Amino acid sequence: MGINSIGILTSGGDSPGMNCAIRAVARTAIGKNISVFGVLRGYQGLIDNRFRQLDRSSVGNILQTGGTILQTSRSEEFRTKEGRKKAFDNMKAKAIDALIVLGGNGSFKGANLFSDEFGVPVVGIPSTIDNDISGTDYSIGFDTAVQSAIEAVDRIRDTASSHERTFIVEVMGRKSPSIAVHVGVCCGAENIVFPYKDVSYDRIANDIKSGINKGKTSSIIIVGEGDKPGLSYEVQKELENNHNLKAHVCILGHIQRGGAPTHQDRFIASKMGNTAVSYLSKGNIKSAAICYQGGEVITKPLSDCFETKIDYEKNYLELVRSLSI
Fold first, then answer.
1. CB 81: neighbour CB atoms within 10 A?
2. pTM of the model
3. How many CA atoms are closer than 13 Å to the CA of 176, on its beta-carbon side?
4. What are residue 192's DSSP bridge partners?
5. Structural domains of the chain ordered from first start
6. What is the pLDDT, as a whole number, of residue 45?
7. Residue 265 is among the residues annotated as catalytic for this protein
8. Which of 87, 124, 217, 314 ranks highest by number of CB atoms within 10 Å?
9. Distance (Å) of CA 215 to CA 161, 202, 218
């Protein structure tokens, strides 16, 4: 099966580096004489027939920009057979032969179902700051999100030290510990709290008091947000009410999503986009995911990336504790 035209969309939450992948897909495809259509606003754009043909200039000067030039959304209509049929009919009318999807495991499940139902070759590129997609060591946006959080915590540490305070800093990550663990290690946090693990408030309180007795002028506790923001306030309430420890809360929120992508996100995203087009141009009709493993960008079955990866990085937590004495 020859590929003459490719569609590309971004789905779910945006992540820094998506534009780098879009650029790589467009320019690699154009170099192979394959037409490229950007789908605006994700799967809903497929249903609403919102296509924009991409050329070299339309993806120029976007490597350094966060977000996604194609915009993104979550589509309830695409969850229905009728919605997916409408999306397929729109692709067929545009003579689009294959689809590249940038998103997380939920987006990949939708892509795989769409491929099974209508025989459309689909390639998924892991793109989520949570870095929680199974089958790949890395997803686009993670490094930038961690770096943004690190810079914010470094600034908070200045104030915490100046006023001899404890700060509870909440980072994104839903059920994934990745951002919290990496920020905790890199910022010298005294403790990390995960939403899906039992919290030992006695241990946290003892660590803070022990630090004070040793002359520490500040403490930083990193909290993973969980399914919704606000876990930090529960930690604050527990420490103040039951351990007589005052703490200030700072929820970083969506500042972790935006901003110029780091070198790592730009490089890996560019390689993933190039690899996705190369895979399709060879006439492969099976759905696939472009993954990062062992320092290499490889192709795997899309079904390998359906599960949420919740790695409990115990060794890193022990590293946090041993370095925060």
1. 9
2. 0.93
3. 22
4. 222
5. 5-141+261-305 (3.40.50.450), 143-257 (3.40.50.460)
6. 96
7. no
8. 124
9. 11, 20, 9
Q: Would the pLDDT of 261 be above 80?
A: yes
- Active-site residue among 14, 130, 132, 143? 130
Structure confidence at residue 58 as a pLDDT band (50, 70, 90): very high
User: Using CA atoms, how far apart are residues 65 and 16, in angstroms rounded to an integer?
Assistant: 8
Distance of CA 320 to the CA centre of its chain: 23
Q: For residues 126 and 138, is the Cβ–Cβ distance under 8 A?
A: yes
Taking residues 237-241, report their average pLDDT: 94
Q: Of 94, 100, 29, 95, whose CA–CA distance to 68 is shortest?
A: 100
Report the distance separating Cα 83 and Cα 79, nearest Å: 7
* Bridge partners for 99 per DSSP: 7, 122
Q: How far apart are alpha carbons 50 and 29 in whole angstroms?
A: 20
Long-range contacts made by residues 184-188, C-beta under 8 angstroms, separation at least 24? 184/222, 184/316, 184/317, 184/320, 185/316, 185/319, 185/320, 185/323, 186/146, 186/150, 187/150, 187/153, 187/154, 187/157, 187/220, 187/222, 188/157, 188/220, 188/323, 188/324
